[in-house]
Amino acid sequence: xxxxxxxxxxxxxxxxxxxxxxxxxxxxxxxxxxxxxxxxxxxxxxxxxxxxxxxxxxxxxxxxxxxxxxxxxxxxxxxxxxxxxxxxxxxxxxxxxxxxxxxxxxxxxxxxxxxxxxxxxxxxxxxxxxxxxxxxxxxxxxxxxxxxxxxxxxxxxxxxxxxxxxxxxxxxxxxxxxxxxxxxxxxxxxxxxxxxxxxxxxxxxxxxxxxxxxxxxxxxxxxxxxxxxxxxxxxxxxxxxxxxxxxxxxxxxxxxxxxxxxxxxxxxxxxxxxxxxxxxxxxxxxxxxxxxxxxxxxxxxxxxxxxxxxxxxxxxxxxxxxxxxxxxxxxxxxxxxxxxxxxxxxxxxxxxxxxxxxxxxxxxxxxxxxxxxxxxxxxxxxxxxxxxxxxxxxxxxxxxxxxxxxxxxxxxxxxxxxxxxxxxxxxxxxxxxxxxxxxxxxxxxxxxxxxxxxxxxxxxxxxxxxxxxxxxxxxxxxxxxxxxxxxxxxxxxxxxxxxxxxxxxxxxxxxxxxxxxxxxxxxxxxxxxxxxxxxxxxxxxxxxxxxxxxxxxxxxxxxxxxxxxxxxxxxxxxxxxxxxxxxxxxxxxxxxxxxxxxxxxxxxxxxxxxxxxxxxxxxxxxxxxxxxxxxxxxxxxxxxxxxxxxxxxxxxxxxxxxxxxxxxxxxxxxxxxxxxxxxxxxxxxxxxxxxxxxxxxxxxxxxxxxxxxxxxxxxxxxxxxxxxxxxxxxxxxxxxxxxxxxxxxxxxxxxxxxxxxxxxxxxxxxxxxxxxxxxxxxxxxxxxxxxxxxxxxxxxxxxxxxxxxxxxxxxxxxxxxxxxxxxxxxxxxxxxxxxxxxxxxxxxxxxxxxxxxxxxxxxxxxxxxxxxxxxxxxxxxxxxxxxxxxxxxxxxxxxxxxxxxxxxxxxxxxxxxxxxxxxxxxxxxxxxxxxxxxxxxxxxxxxxxxxxxxxxxxxxxxxxxxxxxxxx
Length: 968
Description:
Layout: E1 2-3, H1 14-19, H2 21-29, E2 38-39, H3 42-49, E3 61-64, H4 68-81, E4 85-88, E5 103-106, E6 114-117, E7 122-125, H5 131-139, E8 143-144, H6 157-163, H7 176-179, E9 180-186, E10 191-194, H8 200-207, H9 209-224, H10 226-235, H11 248-251, H12 255-263, E11 272-279, E12 281-282, E13 286-294, H13 297-309, E14 314-318, H14 320-327, H15 334-337, E15 345-353, H16 356-372, H17 385-405, E16 411-418, H18 424-438, E17 444-448, E18 453-460, H19 465-484, H20 503-507, H21 509-522, H22 577-593, H23 596-612, H24 619-623, H25 630-641, H26 644-655, H27 657-671, H28 676-691, E19 720-723, H29 727-730, E20 741-742, E21 747-748, H30 751-762, E22 766-767, H31 779-784, H32 787-804, E23 812-814, H33 817-824, E24 843-845, H34 846-854, E25 864-869, H35 873-878, H36 881-891, E26 892-896, H37 910-913, H38 915-921, H39 923-930, E27 936-939, H40 942-952, E28 956-958, H41 959-967
Parallel strand pairs: 3-5, 4-5, 19-22, 19-23, 23-24, 25-26, 25-27, 27-28
Antiparallel strand pairs: 1-10, 2-3, 6-7, 7-11, 8-12, 9-10, 9-11, 13-15, 14-15, 14-17, 16-18, 17-18, 20-21
Helix pairs in contact: 3-22, 8-9, 9-12, 9-21, 18-19, 22-23, 26-32, 30-34, 30-41, 34-36, 36-41
């Protein structure tokens, strides 16, 4: 246990810091080792303000902390400046606990390490990792974290601890509170406590004697009151994240242990948790799932005891409104497709075991209680992953359906409560009645029925006083309903600001006073997250509500949940998809209110921070619950900036593409003959003159020009059309010199040549189109927003491939994953009337074609010992990651994809034009790769190979080049 670094005595006075952003920045910069991690700039503060809740607070400053000492110093700095401090990690919390109007401290960016302990039985983690990222590290040991929140792809360990997360399966026995072994946390005084140390309690008493004694007094006070004990035991027998975890005073004796468990669920109001050690639980990979449609809510809840007794690990409830929403999906499951939904309800149940045999025994034992249920559409269970995925899509797609269909300008609210099981039906019926009374016609109820935990979702407009009043009256009535049922107003999502005014009513005056005293003991100056979790103002939850202006139909459905952020490669460098959309909304609000200075500052910043720096890889759409493709929107905004002359120039390049590629190849080869300082000076001058989106700054690692694309060939009985990507012609393969060959065979180098040799070796003839040099997947024009050129190239390329593929009979194979993805979407550049003709064209990436058609016919490869593999954003979109791994495994005994894998953000020429973006995107991957030793490094896209080579210093090559050499 140790004190943190103190704020330097030279820090400016508090009044100056409050009045002048530069003085506040100076004060905070003295608290961290790198002042670049402190910003008071308006665009960065505004972008960071938005989270998944309906509340909005714009901080005075945003700081990326990098150590416990820095967090302690920042707490002292906030106290000196007279400002509140809010700790922020994933920003996925729904109740307003992740935002504040003082100092916002980012504890995600620099806090992403994990250490697996005891062969996966335990794990030590920092707060910036997502639950999914942690579970990926544990999966190889057959383990996972106990809490299993639905937001596991985006919610971080920091939020999991701060909210005492649980989920669909973990109940109250495997939540964060129950599975935490030890914590390291920082108190507002700067004291660092590590409960993994054997003398943690003695050290706490020595360093914080008043806090230590106060915790003992509160422990004894709670235990001495029969009424308090009963209330705590009743509320914490359910899932309960309302107020502080007072069960800590009953479950633990020593103040250090009590305080560590109070930190869980404290929502950043007592201290900062910088590290946690969790006990893990087994993975249960063998599952059987079924949708049980029942006549009504009563029948559904009555079925629960028998199902749970039979071993069901999951039992998700869906009310009649949820079933109606599910019926409106494009492809509803058979169980609800033709159902005339009246008062029906359904249970999505799942049985899971470690092995196939135990699962079969479990399902067989459950058959009798299942058959006894009064189901409307049967009680079958399925194990097929595709069928199970469809059933789970019905449940998880409810949020997408309701949030995506809401009226523009409204907020999607997802609330959760818990009640005793015997009052579940009555509470569901009561909620339905409240929806009708207060006009929430689109509301749905679903939830974790096994825990009496209900979620309900509704849409709300906060831009008018009558609408806010309607929400207030509904909330008061809902509070009455839940508390009268003996329930809790927050089961999983945390108290936040939304329910803070109701904590006293749920717990009573005595226990509320215990919470107030606990807060005073830990945070006597009230620095940490004031207004969160405890609030005496009965109307506080109705203030600082977000306004959601309409800005663009393509993004208006955004709920600002932040699910996009973990997959965004520019998150650490500029902005994320959530922030790009939030900034659009803030620009619109500034314009509407006449704040021209704010509008101008945000707009000027947006050009680079949002539009130009976006990798446009569209991984965001794979994570977004309402399927927003922010990358596509940024490409459209690029197009809107181009005038008629620029569009004509882009079209001219498309019409003379073969000549343009030759010129670029020749230019690159010439450039390598010119002294590097001259090139750097020349390219730098061109960029300063405004060509920074066309001309890269010269770097010595930019490759020479590549080989010409393959000559036409039209063999008899061709099995595919090979579309060799032009990127392999623009840039030479890794490590090659002019006219490079495969050293082993004396043949042409590069992915295209390797693929053709593999086809010959496997006896699979392929066609190479005539006129290939003038064809392209269209990605260069689409990415840069040159729509006219994109249409021209789309028409020419698709027409050629239509003929070469015998009107779609043969698949078209491409040797660069991003180009395969571009070909798949190329028809979108055409007018609607011209698209149908090409619908039967099939595009296949070369690694997928190789895995299916070539590997079985190739000689046994000579194997490497180890291979580092970089999948690409396009392999994710194409769904060929497994094929890539299959090909990699054919050439290496051990294939490693970094735990920190993500898009490299090279994005065609983005990595050349804005190398800082790629450097940020791959920093963690590069560090992980550099920490290991591998015989080779591979990917499946030339520019991604360039990006990873630059980042790691190791030569990344196309995996087919390695396979070609291994089978030669």
